[in-house]
C-alpha cells in the first residue's frame, strides 16, 4: 500500500520536474557538502554563489538563471547520483562546485563524458590536471599539490631546517606532504601520519616535543585541524615551535580557535585582504549580506566559478549551444577574478600567484584574528602535472 | 494454497520495476532508471543481510565490507586490464565468501551486542586497510575504466540492459532466499535464533548453520558490490564504512525483518525518501536544508509505531 | 627512547583512558541496567559540550556553567527517555539501534539549526590553563590533570552508588528481575528514567569537559562513538568496572601504539615500510585488540553489574 503511495509520489514528482520547453534560460548545478560536519564549507560556498548571482542581477551571461544546489554528503557515489540528477532530470548546462577530490574524481569524468561543462571550484586532483584533463573541465581553484609546494618553497627560502611534518593518513594527506617535500630542500625531522578523524593529539604532541624541531608543518582540514590547533596551543608549543600549515586554518575555523591561531602561517591563492576592486566588492558585500562574517577561500573560488561561466556565456552572446566558443572564452580567463588577473594553463588549471598568509590580531580588541598576506611566494605558478595532459 | 497479499504486493512491485525502462524512455526521464537501479542494487545487499539478520538473528554491523570487497574485486582486476565480467563477478563472489568465512569463523561464536561489535571491528579494519593501499587509490578511490564485459552477450553500458540484469539478479536472490528460508537449513537457522538453548537441547549446534548462512550472505553482498561499482563507475573505501553498514541495516529493519519483501521495501523507502526530502521542489526550504532532521524523526516514528516494518503493514503468509 | 617521553606518553594514555571512561560509563550503565542500546549517547555527549560552552560564554563562571550544563543534559536525557525511548525497553536491540540512530540525526540537525554547522569556540577558564611541573622535568597541562581527577572521582562515585546505596541496590534488582521489583511496590518506570537521566548527565559531563580541547561541532558524537563501543565491549557490557578497565586499556594501547609503533617497526622493517605500515596498523590497533579479547572472552573482560 505504501509502495503504491510512493509510486504515485514518484509519478507526480516526475511530472512536476519535467523540463519546460526550451527557452533562453541557463541552468547551473552546484554540488557541495551541505550536511554533516563539513556543511559549514558548503554553506560558505553557497553563500558566495548567491552573492555572485546577486551581483549579476540573477542573470548569468545576461540570461535568466536557475541555480540548483546538490548535497554530495561527502560521498562519491552520492555526488555521482546528484550530478546525474542535475544532468538528466534538470538538464543543467553547467555542473560546478565540489569540495573533495574523491568526489570530483567520480563526478567530473561523468559530467564531461556526457558533454556538459564541469567547473570545479575547489578540489584539484592531479589526475584531472594531467592524464584525465578534458576540454569541458575548468577549475577556479588550484591543483592540490601547489599549495604545499608554495609552503615548501617559502620554508626553504626562509632557511628553516629540522621541520616536523604531519597529516592524516589518507590520500589527500599523503599528497599534501608529497607536494611539500617536492619543493622543500631542508631537513625533515619526522613525517607523521595520524588516523582519519582522530580527536586526541596528545600522544603526537609529546613525540613532537621530544624531537625539538625548529618548525612544524601540518595539514589538518576541518574538525581535525581545530582539535590539533587547540591542543598544540594548550600544550604551550606555539611559543616554542612556530606552526605552518596548509588548508588547516581558514576563515571558517578561526572563530572556533580564536587567539590560539595567532601567528600561524598558511599559503594560499587568495586572502580577504587582497587588494583589487573585485575582491573588495566581494568581501565587502559578503560581510554586509551575511552578518559581518568573512568569506573563506572556498567561497571566493565559488564566486569566481559563477563569474567565469558568466564571461563565457557573454562571449558567445548567450548561444549555449556554442560549446567550443565558450571553451575558448573560458580559456582566456577574461573576467575580474577576486584573486586578480590570472591565466589558464592548457590543462585548464589556473596559473596564478601564491601568497604567504599569517594570522594576526583582529581590527579591534576581542575580535577574532584575521589572515593577512605577508608576501608573494610564487608569481604565475604553474602546476606540476600539466605535461601529462595531452590537450593543446 | 493462495499466496498471501504480501506476495502479491512483491510480485506487483517487481512487475512495476520491470516496466520502468520503457516508461522512463517514453517520459524522457532517464534519471529515474539510474535512481531505481541504485535502489535495486542496495535492495540486493539488504536481501543478503536480511538472511542473517532477519532470519538468523545475527545483527552484522560489518556487512558493508562485502560491498567493498565485491567492488574492489572488479576494480582491481580492471586495474590490471582484466575486464571479463564472468571472471570479475566470480572473484567478487568468491573473495567475499572467503572473507566472510574468515570473519564468521571468529564472530559467529559470539552473540548479541558482541557480535555487532566484532563485525563492526572487522569492517573498520578493512576500511582502514583500503585507505592505506595507495596503488588502488587509497581513499581517493579508483575509477573503473570499463564496465564488466560479458563477451557480447549483454552490454552493461546500455542503461536498460544493465537495469534488467540487476532486476533479474534481485528477483533471483529473493527467490533463493525464500527457498533457503523454507528449507530445513532455514528452519534450523530460525530455530537457533528464537531459542538457542532449546536448539542445543534438541541436539544440533547452531554454529555451522550460522556460519554457512553468514558465508552465503557475504557472497550475495559481494555480487551487490560488483553491481554497485559498475553502476557508479567509481569505488572508494567509503563503500566499507560502518555508517554504510548502518544504512543497510536500516533498510532491512525499515522494510521489515524476516520478510521476503522487506529488503526491497526498505531500500526503496530509505533511498527514495532521502532523495525526496532533499530535492523535491514542492517542499519548503526549511525542510530540504535540514532534511536529516526530518529523516531522523521519520525513522524513530516508524520504529515506534510500525513494529514489523513496512512489510508488516501488509498481511503476510501466516496472518 | 628516553624515559621522560615514555612517562609522558603513559600519562597521555591514562588521560585518554579516563576521558573514554567518562563517556563510556553512562552508556554501559544504561545498557547494563536497562538493556537499552543507545546510539544517541554520542548525541547527549554533544549536547553537554554545546551547553557547557554556551553557559560558560553567558555566565563567565566555569563552575556555574558546569552545574547548568549537567542539569541541562540530564533534562534533555529525561525528556528524550519519556518521549522517545520508553517503549523501546521491551523491544529487541535492532529496533533500539534504529530508533536511537534516528535520534542522532535529529540532534545533529537541531544543534546545527541552533548554533550553525561550523565548529563553535569553546575554551577553559584562565585559572585552569597552564602547566604543572611533574617530577623529572615533565611539564603537563593542568586541565588534562583536572580531567583525570574528575574521571577518577566519577569512577569512585559510581562504584559507591551502585554497590553501597539503596538506589544502587534498586538498580541492580531492577536489572535482574524487573517485574518482581515492580511487584514489590517500587516505581520501576521512575527508576529507569532516573538511571537514564543519570547516564545522560555522565555523557554531558564528558562532553563539557572535553569540548574545549576537542572540536565542538554537529556530529562530534559519532567521532568517539565507535571508540566508546569498543571500550565497553572489551570491558564487558553493563560492568562499570569493565568500562573503567576497558577504557584504560584502550587509552593506553591507542596512545602507545600511535607514539611508538612506527619507531618500533622501523627496527625490524625498512623505514619506508614502517612509514606505511605504522600509521595503518595504529589505526586498526584497537579493533584488533577487541577482536583478540572477544576471541578469548566472548562476553568481555568483566561480568555485568548484576
Mean pLDDT of chain C: 85
Average pLDDT, all residues of chain B? 84
Give the C-alpha Rg of chain B. Answer: 19 Å
Question: How are the strands ordered across the major sheet of chain B?
Answer: 1-2
Structural class of chain C: mainly alpha
Principal-axes geometry of chain C comes out as globular
Number of DSSP helices of chain C?
11
The stretches of 5 or more residues of chain B where confidence is low (pLDDT under 50) are none
How is the main sheet of chain C built? 2 strands, antiparallel
Q: Total number of β-strand segments of chain C?
A: 2
Query: In what order do the strands lie side by side in the largest sheet of chain C?
Result: 1-2
Indicate the percent of residues in helices of chain C: over 70%
- Quaternary organisation: heterotrimer
Order of helices and strands of chain B: HHHHHEHHHHEHHHH
Kindly summarize this structure in a few lines.
The complex is a heterotrimer of chains A (392), B (319) and C (306). Chain A has 392 residues and is α/β, with parallel strands linked by helices.
Describe the structure.
The complex is a heterotrimer of chains A (392), B (319) and C (306). By secondary structure, chain A is of the alpha/beta class. Chain A has helices at residues 2-17, 39-55, 76-89, 101-113, 126-129, 146-157, 171-183, 202-211, 222-234, 237-240, 254-257, 277-289, 297-315, 323-331, and strands spanning 25-32, 59-60, 63-71, 94-97, 117-120, 137-139, 163-168, 188-194, 215-218, 243-245, 265-268, 343-344, 350-360, 370-381. In chain A, the strands form 2 sheets. In chain A, strands 7, 8, 9, 10, 11, 12, 13 and 14 form an 8-stranded mixed β-sheet that branches. In chain A, strands 2-3-1-4-5-6 form a 6-stranded mixed β-sheet, sandwiched between helices. In chain A, a hairpin with a 2-residue loop joins β2 and β3 (63-71). Helices cover 72% and strands 1% of the residues of chain B. Chain C has one domain. Chain A binds chain C through residues 36-37, 39-40, 43, 169, 191-197, 199-200, 202-204, 206-207, 210, 223-224, 226-227, 230-231, 234-236, 252-253, 255-258, and chain C through 2, 4-5, 8-9, 12-13, 15-16, 19, 108, 112, 116-123, 129, 131, 139, 141, 143-144, 212-220, 223-224, 254-256, 258-259, 262, 275, 278-280, 282-283.
